[in-house]
histidine kinase (Dactylosporangium roseum), 533 residues
Amino acid sequence: MRRRWSIAGQLFALQVLVVTLLVAGGTTGAVLLARDDAKDAATDLVVAVAETVARSPFVVDAVTGADPPGRLRPYADAIQTATHTDFVVIMAPDRTRYTHPTRDLVGKPFTGTIEPALRGGTVVETFTGSLGESVRSVVPVRDAGGRVVALVSVGIRTETVNRRLLRQAPAVALATGAALLLAAAGAWLLSRRLRRQTHGLGPAEMTRMYEYYDGVLHAVREGLIVVDLKGRVALANDEARRLLGLPEIDGAGRQVTDADLPPPIAELVTSGRSAEDEPVLAGDRVLVANQRATRFGGRRLGTVLTLRDHTELRALTGELDSVRGLTEALRAQAHEAANRLHTVLTMVELGRTDEAVQLATAELALAQQLTDRVVGAVTEPALAALLLGKAAQASERGVELEVDAESRLDDTSLPSRDLITVVGNLVDNALEAVAGTDPPRRVTVLIRQAAGEVVIRVGDTGPGLPEAQVADAFRRGWSTKQEGRGLGLALVGQVVRRHGGRLTVTPADGGGAVVTVWLTSSSSSVRNETEGT
């Protein structure tokens, strides 16, 4: 197949053609102007020489005296040689030549126009005479009384004018060649730069690449943000604008700080660091971010950030974790119940029936008390099961989980998933906070309805949460644990914002922290997220 020309090659050929035509036109114009100038110069010369000869007293005296040809021939030859003209002809008013470079033509009539000169004027013409085509002038010779007594004609052949013009040809050719070389070099450098920038692609290839590029960017289901080395957003595809809530018209070239990006995304993009499957929060969404530096030919071009929406997955994962925790708690309770049952059976076999009944009754009453309190206070079955499971987990970890006696939650319009997210994550963080601390280790939970709001309060006896870290903990996924964790409180913050609620973090009596969340049944009610902190 015939190799297609690249854009750079086509541009180079076009530039060379245009420059060649321009130089050729300029050279032609310069030659024509030089020819006209040479002709004008020859005209001025023959007129000046003719007038000078006509005013010479010697010529006036010779034409009115005896033997004009004999006296005038040496004079005319000297003037012709001195002025580099081709002929100096002095003639009588009746055209009879007194002088001529060709001696055979002396005494014969002059050919050409002389009538205006006989009337006292000056004749300037291009005429083909005995010596060929020439530029000539004819002027009158006057005596002391002003009468025309003779005529003087001085001429330069056109061939001589052209020869003089040809002497300038090397300079013109050199200038033309230099202009062509300079223009060709400039066009070559420009095409080389363009070839490097377009990577040698042709128009059809670039059109096809742009169509594929634009189609892929609009079809891909991952958010894509490209930032150049100057910190400007070079590209944000449709999915990125949807995930980040950016306006539809978000022109490329804006600085990251002016692009209305969510703070976690702006911080990640501005840092330029590499990120792999890093969870970040953008409004009510949990996104997984991957960021890499882009390079071409060893040269860094900027960074590329890809985003995937994991909001639903995170919510489902949280529910799954709760179910797993409940399963583990039930397994632990089953194991503990089996141990107690073996103890009771052994005591019966030993004949200590009264002690066995007393032990079984006490254990049953203790377990039933917590169950009755939770089930009686919380009619939401999923939330009640969650609290029972967390109580079992706390017991395994040596933590006492108390459900406040004032807890009461009947039917509510709040989704059970959001309630589980808030209560489960707050209790998990409270359990983490008291883990490893000195006894007593206690976590208290209060859930109740008041004035159209659901109030959730979780307190612990841990080290507490410094006030300076509250905003980070609930807005940016802050964690005291290893990297990649710590989204629990951030998810709580998302639920609070989604339902127009508010939350507070206050110190607990005797140490620890108390987190209180207010959730409204209608998401149209807007609250200040950090009121009271």
User: Anything to note?
Assistant: The CA atoms of residues 24 and 176 lie 8 Å apart.
